Amino acid sequence: AAxxxxxxxxxxxGEYGDMEFIYSHNLIVDGREILFHIWDVPNSQEQAExxxxxxxxxxxxxxxxxxxxxxxxxxFNILPLKIRFIKAAKExxxxxxxxxxxxxxxxxxxxxxxxxxxEGRLLALSLDCGFxxxxxxx
Length: 138
Fold this sequence. Notes:
Strand content: 15-25%
Organism: Fregata magnificens
Family: Belongs to the small GTPase superfamily. Ras family.
Protein name: small monomeric GTPase
EC number: 3.6.5.2
Number of domains: 1
CATH class: Alpha Beta
Shape: globular
Number of strands: 5
Distance between the termini: 15 Å
GO molecular function, one term: GTP binding
């Protein structure tokens, strides 16, 4: 949620509950106006829900940004399963590759890091995804 709000408002807010939100945002990209609809789902909520809710989100979306904390190994370890689930649901229907980006957040907390940048890059490479490390706080 912090990364989404930072993208939308350019502000950092550090504390969020486990709430699900859908945001809409217009942005000019390469001279074209793009309307983003962002369905922001906390990881803890995803794990507690039935698979049908997650399937609904996957069918709704055109692309995916999966965020993990570099300070939380469990948030990283769940990514391969989620990415395979997304690809099976989206790419099984068409021949088009679904855009997926893996984002390691909390780069500013490097002293608490438990997932290396190299691990993130290798996972993204092995699953044919984009990869970035960022800090929503910075």
